[in-house]
Amino acid sequence: MTTTQTQTQTYRGNCHCGAYVYEAKLPEITSAHECNCSICRKKGYLWVFVGESDDFRAVKGTDDELTSYSFGSGKMFHKFCPKCATPLMGVFPDGPPGKQRGLNVHAIQGLNTWKLERKMFDGAAMGNKYVPHEYKGSLPAAVAGKQLYTGSCHCGKVRVALMSKPLDDSYDDRIVECNCSICERNGCRWVYPPVAAVVLAGDDADIGRYSFARHIMSKTFCRTCGVCMTNERNALLADDAISERDGPFKAWAETYRPVNLRVLDNVDLSGLRPAQMNDGANSLPPPYENP
């Protein structure tokens, strides 16, 4: 009797800043698991699982250098880069064979995640129901015809308030998913309100900020759980350090403050019109180089 062995190939993945790089031997990735639990929703995870322990190796960095976040039973550890917040993987030491390390395919190089088959998993029905954190912080000014929305990272240390048109099937402003190097990895779904319509709340020590390339904007995230919150003008970059070519981008960054829809409470993402797919990987300079 002969046994057919599943063919594998070596995939390479990394956080955005390149501090952590790995290789994994996996069957060809044509599908991924999409879970609707509280943290998977906020991080936009798409999962594949590594089989044997020797099918995965860190090429640069170590697991211990990543930030670990756990909740609930405390048996699963979500690993993300403390500098750029890329959500890389989940480690489940007590999990069944072949399910002890899940990789977020958004961080794997060369994959078109928009074309992957998505296998839905109802994680929201498991364990205790997630209770959204109470918003604490200042509020944007009320505007006629608009509603107040609040939300938070998963652990609740970083919160956001948004004054917006109703976020339902009537919403007609831009909703975007982008495949640029950072938005792909963070799994964000963006809306683009004016700066005055957004408040990011929390202790500054709990808020991470990551900028790269032209450094005009910073992605904000929670240092504890790693959830990406907003995009904001990088306050550390002086005006005279911005080139004339980047002047329009600076003006845009001072006008709008994108918010990740995934972090907002009481917003049904499936009830909104489909997101516009923005090919930022090929349209936003400079091109990103995978490590």
Automatic annotation (TrEMBL):
Gene3D superfamilies per the UniProt record, alphabetical: 2.170.150.70
Keyword Zinc listed: yes
GO molecular function: carbon-sulfur lyase activity; metal ion binding
SUPFAM superfamilies per the UniProt record, alphabetical: Mss4-like
Positions of the CENP-V/GFA domain: 11-122, 149-289
PROSITE patterns (alphabetical): CENP_V_GFA
One Pfam family, short name: GFA
Domain of life: Eukaryota
Assigned keywords, A-Z: Metal-binding, Zinc
InterPro entries for this protein: CENP-V-like, CENP-V/GFA, Mss4-like_sf
Family: Belongs to the Gfa family.
Protein name: Glutathione-dependent formaldehyde-activating enzyme domain-containing protein
Organism whose genome encodes this protein: Hirsutella rhossiliensis
Lineage of the species this protein comes from: Eukaryota, Fungi, Dikarya, Ascomycota, Pezizomycotina
